[in-house]
Amino acid sequence: MLIGVPAEIKNNEDRVAITPAGVLELVKLGHRVLIQSNAGFGSGFEDKEYISVGAEIVPTIEDVYARAEMVLKVKEPIAQEYDLVREGQLLFTYFHFASSEPLTKAMIKSKAVCLAYETVESADGSLPLLIPMSEVAGRMSIQEGAKYLEKPLKGKGILLGGVPGTPRGKVLVLGGGIVGTQAAKMAAGLGANVIIMDISLKRLRYLADIMPANVTTMMSNQHNIETAIKEADLIVGAVLIPGAKAPHLIKRDMLKKMRPGTVLVDVAVDQGGCIETCTPTTHEAPTFIIDDIVHYCVANMPGAVPYTSTLALTNATLPYVLELANKGWQKATEESLALKKGLNIVNGEIVHKGVAEAFA
After folding, report:
1. 24 in a domain, yes or no?
2. Binding site residue list for Mg(2+)
3. Do 290 and 339 fall into the same domain?
4. pLDDT digits (tens, 9 = 90+) for 65-93
5. pLDDT value of position 146
6. Catalytic residue of the set 96, 248, 295, 352
7. What GO cellular component is one of the record's annotations (predicted)?
8. Which one of 304, 324, 346 terminates a domain?
9. Which residues contribute to the annotated binding site for substrate?
10. Same structural domain for residues 261 and 351?
11. What is the pLDDT of residues 142-175, one digit of tens each?
12. What pLDDT is attached to residue 243?
């Protein structure tokens, strides 16, 4: 199979969809790999490293889309890529269709095969291609939130861990999945007092067992959320419904219950966000303020640490890339239920329930 890897052109996105090590595994099996020039530069991989393992370097993104049977990406195609996607071409990347009707319509129009990392699902219900970036984003949510709590950045002026003789910062994490778990661990490690909420009692029991003493588990419901936000210094939105829009757990009128300078980090923003007032931002302009509340809503948080993120992502995606390359997407999805669940749009038709429901 001829596999193409374009450079990511989304704002401040320096990740790349495959490492030289991954290219070598494909080439060993007889596949050909096209890498757009400098696609790996932001992640620390130079063209000469790809060439040394058998990749062909091509100068433009148009070359990649025009020739490749399967296009590997990190983030969804943006508007200037829509017309480059060809009928029958396989795109394997994060799509998050439910949060973007223009993208969904463009991929329907293209009649391409859109296989989304975020809905590939293992037999145990886990999302193996979402987990590594969720781990990165969860840890980064605390790193970024702690920074924006600084007074020059319009936060409360609070050090999350405090120092002897001062109170610790208070962190509220909404959602006890991968993102929420990693966020709670990081916040606890910094010394903050942490509340983590989830709707699953089974999950809360697990979290209570593994978390340190400065983490409190709590059932997620409107009353508990409205009570906790009054005292929280940093609130992390970490709710995910695979393939579908995230529910709004914090509404606009609830901002008035928070103290000025509270920081909101909505990790679910690429799925529509679980905080009503959050809209996607970029690494260049990551925050905005509504009602004296700082909102951090960067849709590609792991893009800020591309070396770590690229290694983590490609460790997870490569086995599936090899399966698709070796068998073709039709046979691969017939034989693998995990990959079949990754299909979102096929030849102009939405085939994923969550995406279909998002647009009625």
Report:
1. yes
2. 323
3. no
4. 999 999 999 999 999 999 999 999 999 99
5. 98
6. 96
7. plasma membrane
8. 304
9. 15, 75
10. no
11. 999 999 999 999 999 999 999 999 999 999 999 9
12. 63
In this predicted structure, what is the pLDDT of residue 85? 98
Q: Which residues are annotated as a binding site for NAD(+)?
A: 134, 198, 203, 220, 239-240, 267-270, 298-301
Report the pLDDT value the prediction gives residue 354, as an integer from 0 to 100: 87
Q: Does the active-site annotation cover 248?
A: no
User: What would the pLDDT profile of 275-291 be if each residue is shown by its tens digit?
Assistant: 999 999 999 999 999 99
Report the CATH number that the domain containing residue 239 is assigned in CATH. 3.40.50.720
Verify whether residue 223 is a known catalytic residue.
no
Specify if 125 maps to a domain: no
Q: 251 and 152 share a domain?
A: yes
258 and 141, same structural domain? yes
Structural domain total, the chain = 2
Selecting among 14, 233, 266, 270, the annotated active-site residue is: 270
Question: What share of the chain has pLDDT > 70, as a percent?
Answer: 99
Q: Is the pLDDT of residue 270 over 90?
A: no
Q: Check whether residue 92 and residue 240 sit in a common domain.
A: no
- Specify whether 82 is located in the same domain as 94: yes
Distance, CA of 254 to CA of 227 (rounded, Å): 10
Question: Do 251 and 295 reside in the same domain of the chain?
Answer: yes
**210: containing domain:** 131-304
Known binding positions: 15, 75, 134, 198, 203, 220, 239-240, 267-270, 298-301, 323
